[in-house]
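Complex 426.
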Amino acid sequence: MPSSIAIGSGRAWRERLSSAGIDALYLHVPFCARKCAYCDFASWATTRGDVLPRRYAEALERQVEQVSHLGLLDGCETAYVGGGTPTLLGEALGGLVRCVMECAPGIRELTCEANPDSLSDNVLREVAAAGCTRLSIGVQSLCDSELGELDRLHDAERARERVAAAVGGGLDVSCDLMCAIPLQTSDSWQATLEGVASLGVGHVSVYPLQIEDGTALAQKVGDEQPSWNSSDTQAARMEQAQSVLEDCGYRRYEVASYARLPEKECSHNKMYWTGRPYLGLGTGAASMLTAEGYKRLLEACPQLGPLPEGMTRARLRVVSGRDQIAANGRLSSLTFEEEFLTERQAAAEDLMLGARLACGLDAGLVAYTHDLLGESVDKTLNRLVREGFLSDALTPTQRGWLLGNELYGELWDLAGDTETLTRRSA
Ligand code: SF4
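Predicted structure with iron/sulfur cluster bound:
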């Protein structure tokens, strides 16, 4: 164990495993006005006047009410309506937000994802009045030619204007930006970073573009990785983002996330990185439940089947399509992919996720994993410190940020048996 680590009690971390509720709720809205060139998310182009998005949103409301009746939302603190393009729902998005707030009154942060093209003044007013506290806006770039290459619907002027309107409307605003994209230069990236900072947003997320198989962009670039997306370019852009955003008053608190003040950090995403249970509804949405939470969900979803012997954590993904969900909003009609983790695998996963955070590995988590996994934890952490991935305080170093996949892989290997049990619900 690195000598500077004060070992905290692992009890609090262990108690998370017996929580019967969820701390965070995610709702997926899989509709977009058009498919972007690089997108492999669960999202489909829809046409104006299509009734499916509204029916789908109403079905999600019924599902939220159902999980609320199970008591699963009693301790829920955050919610995130993501997509896709939730703002494409128009006023129906306000109805969905209102339903979530009524079913989970303990929520202190509710984020809606938004795209500049569909973020009208009406939608802004409607979601704010319904209880939304935060908007995450898909700006991606403030350079028109780059936005064109990505097949985004908005231009830089529209993005600036809509972000300013959201900030002016009193909501917490985050901007998503993308680096290592076609036509991007160091100068244009600098202008994008400084441009969003000048709009007064409290939070910025920065991601290198991944060229995913099956997308229009992958078809266009072919087999060779283009120089604008090489691993060296990605690393250089991520380092530049850190330098520019820190100069503008932001602090990096996670590998891809920057906030001006600690209270502007995304509480919802932090749930994912700190082993807190969450429930995802909507096509493609993912959940992470404790054994007790899973058993409670089973009351409304008998198709899931009993929790397999010896499992501590359940990861679920809704595989029902958008038509199926819109046609029958009952939880019992959903099909899930299920993955089950032993306590050892769950502990390794928590270490892996915790290493994404600038504050590093929680002392309670380290103590808990030490009790559970023994000397192998000390050996791995010492090696990661020696190899320069982690500091003595078990926070990620610059090398740890840049070579995250190596770092996370080493921590996941602590699971011993990295093969997880999977099945599909009836
Ligand atoms: S707006 Fe987002 S989810 Fe929709 S197609 Fe573009 S990248 Fe995909």
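DSSP finds 17 helices and 15 strands in the chain.
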